[in-house]
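To the team - flavin mononucleotide complex, inputs and output below.
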Amino acid sequence: MPGSSPLADDLDTVRRLEDAGAPAIVLRSLFAEQIAREELSAYLHLERRGESFAEALSYFPSPERFVMGPEEYLAHLSRVRAAVRIPVIASLNGTRPGSWRDYPRAIEEAGADALELNIYHLPTDPDVTGDEVEEMALQAVREVKRALRIPVAVKISPFYSAIAHFAARLDAAGADGIVLFNRFYQPDIDVETLEIVPRARLSNPTELLLRLRWIAILAGQVGMSLAVTGGVHGAVDVVKAVMAGAHAVQMVSSLLRRGPAVLSRTRDELARWLEEHEYNSLRQMQGSLSAGRGASPAALERVHYMRVLHSWRPGDEEPAPARRPS
Ligand SMILES: Cc1cc2nc3c(=O)[nH]c(=O)nc-3n(C[C@H](O)[C@H](O)[C@H](O)COP(=O)(O)O)c2cc1C
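Output:
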């Protein structure tokens, strides 16, 4: 499905994506800071960076720089809902409970079929522990789940010290799905102008590998649905994600680069691939290469790591892929 992005900003594109076979569509995120701009100042004070407060606020985009304000977001969501038959998934971005005020309910009332919570948080305070970071996200999930009847998926980053444990806690907090992983837009430094350059890069397929690993580890260990986002550019990437255990696969960069037709091409290629490899359905292969099959995930990880490092020979540009132990 098309993941959270500007792809759903335009109704015509949304219809083209539905025609190209999208089974659902995710809207771009509405940011907690848009809902309560003062949230940013509270956050910065909490982070004890008072002296840089004014400067930081000046980096924060002014309301008119956002594509849609909170009320426009709800109106757009209703329009998208009315324009297509496929499920429409809204997205909220934030880090802490309370930050979205009543918007989760308003989003449900505006017709969203599900909600994706994009927990995008870079903990920079040395006094804040990993457990506190996780607890804050969990409280936000519990709060949203209490308020809503529609399913809630949580999109997380890979930067948790114990992803499997955090995922299990999200599961226990009531999350219906987990989306692995959001991408942090890492700013670069321009050494000539001495400026920080924020740059949104589109992805490439190498980014899929991190997702495959974690989907494979989580498959069978949590009850939530597992979705991949990041580095899916074609049918074989979808096959890999499903074999690792994904129930859903999102695409963004590839659709932004080459348009909605990529989706129908990918679906056609996927159907051909399944036929050529004698699979009757995606379900038949789903999780067939997850880490839960056979050995323990931890043991498999160690084995793969050692094999990969020992497989490299002088002259090899890249180490040979490590074989799965039988
Ligand atoms: C231009 C652009 C805008 C995006 N906006 C959002 C957003 O609002 N919310 C969100 O959760 N992810 C957003 N993403 C991240 C995508 O949903 C997706 O997770 C990421 O691009 C990785 O998938 P891909 O490799 O298929 O691009 C955006 C990505 C791009 C390229």
